[in-house]
Write a structure and sequence with these properties.
Length: about 400
Amino acid sequence: MRPLRLAVMLEQALEVGGGFQQPLNDLLWLRDWAAKSGNEIVVYSPYPKTLDILKEFGVAARLLKFGPLDHVFLFLKYCGPFDLVQIALKLKSPFERALIRDGIDVVHFTSTSKRHLLLYELPFIITIFDGCHRDAPEFPEVRTFGEFERREILFGLASTKAAVVIVNAPELVDDLCRRYAMEKERAVCIPFSPSTYVSQSTSDAADDEAVLSRYRLKPGYLFYPAQFWPHKNHMTLLAALASLRERGVTERLVLCGSDRGGRDKIDAAIRAYGLSDQISIIGFVESAELGALYRGAAALVMPSYFGPTNLPPLEAWAVGTPVIYPEAFKTQAGDAAILFDYDDPRSLADAIVSLRADGTRERLRTAGHLRLAQFAEETNAGHQQFARHLERLKHRLALTAR
């Protein structure tokens, strides 16, 4: 039986943060799987910068951008009736034709890509990180200008047509089955893993100090790495710091991440609260600097509304940094975080104060390492299940080879 030739699509830009780092983790595992199993992967990305990054890991990738005709296909697909025309004429998008020319058997989307709508002949695997447009539709980034409807089309077809659906939490499997009638046996749960850049970074005092000095930081700050979206809930964090200041407690905060349209409001709130002297906004940082920034923090504080899982807590646990996290995501955090109500600034302020209690940091550090080890076991089990699915696909596709 000839090797399975799997296309691995990395469509998220580096600036997306966790949306780039987790697919990178998936790719590195798939590279090892292919080498051990005698199969092949072909990596594609629309970003030249991603190709350069992958070279650092010894991965050769191909640039595959999406042209005007692909976007026409997507637009018509969203319109619905185009399906009948495409079926009748057996039309394939330029995107799919390019993959077929490369001898691809299966396409693996490492994010919830709209490009799966362009596939009519090739089977695909899809990754679904969350269902937050259903969980929190009040946020404009998942609701306005047709975004909610677009996601419904993507999620509905992806979760029912995909040969395999990769998720990061068991509760997401239940959500997809309930909302879109996904077949449960097609789902594979692979928990998030810390970014390779963080988990493999070394604790070198001189190097860490150099990174902090570059941003004019001193250790002991609260750290929140997140893009500036409304759902990231920076406002509650700022209100909590203002509340602490009224109690006579002054905490320093470091924010990093790219601006997604929410930065102006955050800047205005910082000025209104009088917190300018306590907050450093350092923008998007290089992946190689993240380990030092986590290690320099007194705690990761993450008030995001979107879950059920997130990558930063895992990265904080990997370097022994305490985590302050919403109680809504207790399933991920377990006892390895101080929990708070993400709708209540006072609750978050109390959580920050409790971090200073005797023995708390040591307890959280130990619990974080144990939690990370548990997720590593679950990730290994998920990878084994995924490998079985890939072998099943290999056998079935051999029966229907072109």
